[in-house]
Design brief:
about 300 residues, six-stranded antiparallel sheet, 5 helices, mainly beta, Jelly Rolls
Length: about 300
């Protein structure tokens, strides 16, 4: 099976910047450019193959390419993005599978953030600083004092944050991340700084949904056994230098180049890559290798 080089769908959310074009080679006419969905079979932002067809179409025609571990999911399980937060994102939460499937008709959203760059003084919100009650949560939303009880974490390049469904969070200004998440586009905004959207109206909040799904306690420390993150939906590793792996029958392999340049070899193909490139290696592609001066995220299911 061939190595598939992917082209992203892009999003112009109002908090975005221009760094994905300038530094990651993302081609888009959008201003600002907030997100590039670099591995996606989601209808809200599909990624494309070099012939212009969608990854989702390829997977429908070749379901074995996803791998045997993906058979337990009704849909392709993950979605990967680059995110450029020139300004603060809303304080938000994502539901669990059970809630999202019942109320939204799609999966919930557990995700992991890998910080690619952060301006001096940059921070993000990651759960609560201490446990609170649902009554206090609701009151602080009404009174615009929610940030007083959130866990504000300074960030730097290379930091990793695993965000299970139900964890209140926000990427704040001056941060560029790679995000690996469940294949979902369900977000409940809790607080958005009073901003208005392109239509001139305040952006919608989802208070009742957030009250129903938010875990009202600090994040738990987890051990991923040497991986950046590991859960039922994905396993993510950061690699660099001479790296060798195998795409067996169990899972596809996503290769996302987060920095530098080099070459990818698989199945008799050798492909040059650079920062921002995204590749899909179908399950059962066999041995593959990366070399060069680069950093990459390797994701499997």
């Amino acid at each position: 099976m061939p190595v598939l080089k992917l082209t992203p769908s892009c999003k112009d959310y109002l908090w975005g910047g221009e760094r994905l074009k300038a530094e990651f080679g993302v081609r888009s006419e959008l201003h600002p450019l907030a997100e590039a969905w670099v591995l996606s079979a989601h209808p809200d932002g599909p990624s494309y193959l070099e012939d212009g067809s969608m990854l989702a179409e390829y997977l429908a025609a070749h379901p074995e390419a996803a791998g045997t571990h993906c058979r337990k999911f009704e849909q392709f399980p993950i979605l990967t993005k680059f995110i450029d937060a020139k300004n603060d994102l809303s304080i938000q939460v994502h539901p669990s599978d059970a809630y999202a499937l019942e109320h939204e008709g799609q999966y919930g959203k557990t995700e992991v953030w890998y910080v690619l760059d952060a301006e001096p003084g940059a921070f993000l919100y990651y759960g609560f600083a201490h446990e609170i009650t649902k009554e206090e949560f609701a009151r602080r939303i009404r009174e615009n004092t929610l940030t007083e009880v959130l866990n504000a974490v300074p960030v730097k390049k290379g930091d990793v944050f695993f965000i299970p469904a139900g964890t209140l969070h926000a990427i704040c200004k001056g941060i560029v991340i790679a995000e690996v998440q469940q294949n979902s586009n369900v977000t409940y905004r809790v607080y958005d700084y009073g901003r208005v959207g392109a239509d001139g109206k305040p952006r919608a909040l989802h208070i009742q949904q957030a009250l129903a799904v938010t875990e009202l306690c600090p994040p738990k420390e987890l051990d991923f056994g040497g991986h950046l993150a590991q859960c039922d939906y994905f396993t993510v590793d950061a690699v660099t230098g001479a790296f060798e792996g195998i795409a067996d029958e169990s899972s596809f392999v996503s290769v996302l180049i987060s920095d530098g340049a080099g070459k990818l070899t698989c199945g008799g193909q050798t492909i040059s890559f650079e920062k921002g490139n995204s590749f899909f290696l179908p399950a059962n592609s066999g041995a593959y290798a990366l070399c060069g001066s680069y950093e990459a995220l390797i994701t499997t299911v």
